[in-house]
Amino acid sequence: MAASRVLVLNSGSSSVKYQLLDMRDSSRLAAGLVERIGEETSRLKHTPLLGGGGEAREQNRPIADHEEALKAVAAELAQDGLGLDSPELAAIGHRVVHGGKFFTQPTVIDDAVLKEVERLIPVAPLHNPANLTGIRTAMTLRPDLPQVAVFDTAFHTTMPESASRYAIDVKTADEHRVQRYGFHGTSHAYVSRKTAELLGRAPEEVNVIVLHLGNGASASAVRGGVCVDTSMGLTPLEGLVMGTRSGDVDPAVIFHLMRVGNMSADEIDVLLNKKSGLIGLCGDNDMREIRRRIDEGDQEAQLAFDIYVHRLKKYIGAYYAVLGRVDALAFTAGVGENAAPVREAAVAGLEELGLTVDGELNSVRSDEARIISPEYARVAVAVVPTDEELEIAQQTYALVAPPEDRNA
Question: I need a surface site. Which of 187, 227, 274, 399 has the fewest CB within 10 A?
Fold first, then answer.
């Protein structure tokens, strides 16, 4: 068998999250996170997982930039015998947030790809520059190795134009590339496919509503393995109530705040992206803390929870209508996987749509994909832990491995 390892890199503005996987059995060999890059004290936490795992190692020291961060990651991997110079390393897979309309599949990175990702910076100013920095640094460290971009937006490029276009002047929209792109695509792809497996059916046979509920949150309608609608739009701001983002608002709110509140565009950007959602409603964006406050009778926390759930229900109902038939509703990501009260509240009152949860099954905590609806339920309600790193690794390896090894 040819080289079978894939290093997955998720480069943020001041962080690098990474995993090394062996695609012969999808096992994890190492994982880690470098954070606070460029600050006075950075932190690198590395966990070796080969052979059942070992003690995590931690460094707290200044790490000036992404190049130094990746060199530190390479040194940690080398300490475990998993260095970047290993002949078993087949490729490096990079999470890239915005691929626009052009990138519909994972793509081997070359100069043309880099230019296009750079051209998309105006529609992803917080994400694409950091992604590019990680890619360029990795290419410097291993110029001989295939580097693959896996795009958050790619899974959603199958949306029909009736779902992806905004009802604004077509010429203006096209000139400025204004449309609904959607995000969290690797998670929605992975979870919709895993949900079909959980039902014992092929993805092509199953219609799924996926709720990716973390600090960022999005919903998708997936028909036969293909995305037909999603809640995020031109940016990750649209859609569900999130930890710090507002989700859907009347666009005229922006004009009102400019005229009446004398707020600048930048101030409103910060308001809607960083000071809204749950934290704007009640001062907390951790669902565990919100539930604790609710249990103590805190009405502000209760209202925030109710608004959060109300928006979830609206999207469940809307995507039920879009799909026509729903076989499963899948919860995933930090809140979706761990907050039983959110799952229960999201489907409460939707029994006529065939949606309900079994209280006992819903209360079980597990890292395994599972059904939490009763056997008689017309629509399966599932909890499916997401695995974006594995999805990126699989897509990367499928692109670069010899045909005889891709399904080994």
Answer: 274
152 is catalytic: yes
The catalytic residue among 80, 152, 229, 387 is 152
From first to last of its 408 residues, the chain has per-residue pLDDT tens of 578 999 999 988 788 899 999 999 999 999 999 988 888 889 999 999 876 667 889 999 999 988 899 899 999 999 988 988 889 999 999 999 999 888 999 999 999 999 999 998 887 787 888 899 889 989 998 999 999 999 999 999 999 999 999 999 999 999 999 999 999 999 999 999 999 999 999 999 999 999 999 999 999 999 999 999 999 999 999 999 999 999 999 999 999 999 999 999 999 999 999 999 999 999 999 999 999 999 999 999 999 999 999 999 999 999 999 999 999 999 999 999 999 999 999 999 999 999 999 999 999 999 999 999 999 999 999 999 999 999 999 999 999 887 666 554
Q: What is the DSSP string of 214-283?
A: SSSEEEEEEETTEEEEES--SSTTSSS--SS---S--THHHHHHHHTS---HHHHHHHHHHS-HHHHHHS
